[in-house]
Design a protein that fits this description.
CATH architecture of the largest domain: Alpha-Beta Complex
Oligomer: single chain
Strand order of the largest sheet: 6-8-5-9-7-10-11
CATH class of the largest domain: Alpha Beta
Radius of gyration: 20 Å
Helix content: 25-40%
Number of strands: 11
CATH superfamily of the largest domain: PurM-like C-terminal domain
Number of domains: 2
CATH topology of the largest domain: Phosphoribosyl-aminoimidazole Synthetase, Chain A, domain 2
Shape: globular
Number of helices: 8
Length: about 300
């Protein structure tokens, strides 16, 4: 790998923000306007994506897992810093594919790349992105703002991470595998909904049950989830299969709480926050034992 050459050839063309100085300096000037937030995610080959996944899809996934966090806070993605630990055995054509996927989704979500780092490694491909966001209102919507009695909502379908992973591993339907490799995340419309109506919000990345428990705990509440109300990637009446989809992770949907009488456009009501602590699951009115593992633990 010729670090300087590859940066000039593949990364510099993506850098258009004036504050980045075409990467000719050690720092970038943020184009801050109004309340700003930041998030950072790292994805590692063999942990967060399959080692043989097409690298353009890996690049897209990197952008999307970060943008999902920003949208879930009621904010709009703004600028990104990118760090790549590239395997020493990697070839330039694979690097070009990775950058093409990143470039595709930087444009898709209106993100300006303002800097980063590129190093060689004897380990697996490791990618880190720091992404800033502009709050739609005066502050982000935290996990901790929910109250007992409020309804719990989710947008989109839950379970595509697990359904798609199995397809990618076992040679299942290509369109299912693609939903794992390039998750369909929320949009600025959903972020506006969060800003307008949510009392607490977060993205669902480690499994609906685990992330729901996290939101409730941060808000000092318990929660009840109606498994029959959860919109699923693979609809079923089998309780264990529903739970499997709700614990698989990699869905990148938005989970929020709002006043129970609110109509939350684009979201489905799946339960409520409660005064009693802990997670309770129901299916057709019957109590269901919660699984020992609620989601993906890093």
């Amino acid at each position: 790998m010729h670090e300087a050459t590859w940066i000039d050839r593949y990364i510099v063309p993506l850098v258009t923000a004036p504050g980045a100085a075409r990467l000719r300096d050690d720092v970038a000037l943020l184009s801050a306007s109004g309340p700003m937030i930041a998030t950072m995610d790292t994805i590692v080959a063999g942990v967060h994506f399959l080692a043989d996944d097409p690298l353009d899809t890996v690049g897209q996934k990197l952008v999307r897992v970060n943008a999902s966090d920003i949208f879930a806070k009621g904010a709009e993605p703004a600028e990104a810093l990118l760090s790549i630990a590239w395997p020493n055995r990697g070839v330039e054509s694979e690097f070009a594919a990775l950058i093409s996927g990143i470039a595709c989704d930087l444009e898709e979500f209106g993100v300006g790349l303002i800097g980063g780092d590129l190093v060689g490694t004897s380990g697996p491909l490791t990618l880190t992105m720091t992404l800033t966001g502009r709050c739609i209102n005066t502050a982000p919507v935290r996990r901790s703002g929910g109250s007992a009695g409020e309804a719990l909502f989710v947008n989109g379908e839950i379970g595509w991470g697990g359904v798609g992973l199995r397809a990618a591993q076992d040679g299942g339907p290509a369109e299912h595998a693609q939903r794992y490799r390039v998750p369909r995340i929320s949009s600025l419309f959903a972020a506006q909904t969060v800003a307008d109506l949510a009392t607490a919000s977060m993205d669902v990345s480690d499994g609906l049950l685990l992330d729901g428990a996290r939101l409730a705990a941060a808000s000092g509440c318990g929660l009840e989830i109606d498994l029959g109300a959860v919109p699923l990637a693979s609809p079923t009446e089998n309780t264990s299969e529903i739970v499997s989809q709700c614990t698989a992770g990699d869905d990148y949907r938005i989970l929020l709480s709002a006043e129970a009488d609110k109509a939350v456009s684009g979201f489905t009501a799946i339960g409520k926050l409660t005064e009693s602590q802990g997670l309770r699951l129901f299916h057709h009115g019957q109590l269901v034992n919660a699984p020992s593992t609620l989601g993906f633990e890093h």
